[in-house]
Design brief:
5-stranded mixed beta barrel, 2 domains, 4-stranded antiparallel β-sheet, Immunoglobulin-like, alpha+beta, single chain, 4 helices, OB fold (Dihydrolipoamide Acetyltransferase, E2P)
Amino acid sequence: MMFKKGMGLILILFVISSACASIIFALEIEEQGKVTNIVDGDTFDIDIGERIRLADVSAPEPDKSGGSQATSILRTLINGRTVYLDTDPKRSYERLVAVVYVKHNSTHYKNINNILLDNYGPPFYEDNHPNEFNPSTWTLYTQYHFPPPDPPPEPPPIPPEGHLNIILNDENSNPLGAVGIAEISGPKGHLPLHGATNQDGLIQFYYLPPGEYKFLARREGYHNKTFSVKILAGTNHTKNVAMELTSTPVTPPESKTNRWIKPEYGMILLVTVTSIVASS
């Protein structure tokens, strides 16, 4: 009685280990394609221009006994389907020698070679042709093998400097040329920036160390303008600045000759001078 229980336990463990083997077995898929033609019970064509020979499986030629039956079985299993091929490095008569898989569900492949030998038997038989495969290790279902994804590419290094575009406009958003720009303060380690805007109101500074910059903008007829800019490494920053007019209409000063003579007194003075001249 104890012997029977022990044998039963061994049998259960064997079944479990066999099932686990079908799950953890990892295959290599070198080729895949859609089946376009069944040549016979062990050979077929796929749409990438390859003829495939089933590894370690043989079937009679179509004109031999059992040949048409074998061809019909293979056609039923794979014709028109996408097949996944674990191929041998060596070809046989220009054909790829392969273990052939089709998708069973979202997690597993089904081994066609194994099905033909274990489920159908004659007219199929194992041919033991030299290759890298071992039919004794095959299982009916094999878990998908997902290779680890390639690591993401390294991001390009961030340039250590930044660039600055300064645009000067008037109150009506018209560009102001010939505006003098001078750096008041900024990061250490570079020469002070200065220059003048072009006719488009633009001045550009390149390869600036990151940090806070303070500038003074000056042009005759406009109020001086101070402004700050923060430059970040690897960026191209644009700063728009508006300047206000200072010029207003100016009344010309009165001359020493007439500044104390009011208009109404001027007429009286003219009449008096005229009378004196007439009387003399």
